[in-house]
Write a structure and sequence with these properties.
This protein is mainly alpha-helical and 120 residues long. The protein contains 3 helices and no strands. Helix 1 packs antiparallel against helix 2. The longest helix has 33 residues.
């Protein structure tokens, strides 16, 4: 097997795992997956579902970035000039998605947590 096919297969596996996790989180919510971010017991069920959808969407976007990188390496194996740019997009995009998700989850927890007193 050639190197580019191996890279495509190597990127397909984590993308598939992320897609399965995204499906499970979308189905069952983020409970158990986002423990360390704070106390989710004070958050309403609707906000938990919003957090689950956001987490699921980010995981699908990460899977798309990883699979896109593998497909790019498979289609253009000799393109050394843009290979570094493709790796930068992959790592930078995943990093930005993670930081954005953490900030969004903290925001959701803050707006639905203490201090609301039933007001919307």
């Amino acid at each position: 097997m050639s190197d580019q096919v191996m890279l495509l297969l190597a990127s397909s596996f984590p993308a598939a795992v992320l897609l399965v996790l995204a499906y499970v989180i979308r189905l069952h919510g983020p409970q158990g997956f986002v423990h360390g971010i704070g106390d989710w017991s004070k958050v309403s069920e609707q906000t938990r579902r919003r957090a689950g959808r956001a987490t699921s969407n980010v995981l699908v976007e990460m899977a798309a970035l990883i699979l896109g990188h593998g497909v790019y390496a498979w289609l253009y194996p000799d393109d050394r000039a843009h290979a570094a740019l493709a790796r930068l997009v992959l790592s930078g995009g995943n990093g930005l998605l993670i930081v954005g998700l953490l900030l969004y989850l903290l925001h959701l927890q803050k707006i639905d947590g203490a201090g609301r007193h039933g007001r919307r």
